[in-house]
Amino acid sequence: xxxxxxxxxxxxxxxxxxxxxxxxxxxxxxxxxxxxxxxxxxxxxxxxxxxxxxxxxxxxxxxxxxxxxxxxxxxxxxxxxxxxxxxx
Length: 88
Prior knowledge:
By secondary structure, the protein is an all-alpha fold. The chain is built from three helices and no strands. The protein starts with 13 loop residues before the first helix and ends with a helix.
């Protein structure tokens, strides 16, 4: 037996309603279709942002692990940079 659970919503914000009208007029989509598409794009953006944050966390961990403890929390001096780069 199939069960269809229709959920309804209404737009109770003038700005949101105006944006929805503009999108539907521009794209020719129905309101529901436009909302679904917009929410899918927003979800993708959120997921991508979470993936970027996870990648940055991994990079930070790896970079911090490679930094000598005496260099942590301060910029190296000119002499230290030259030594690390093998410069005279």
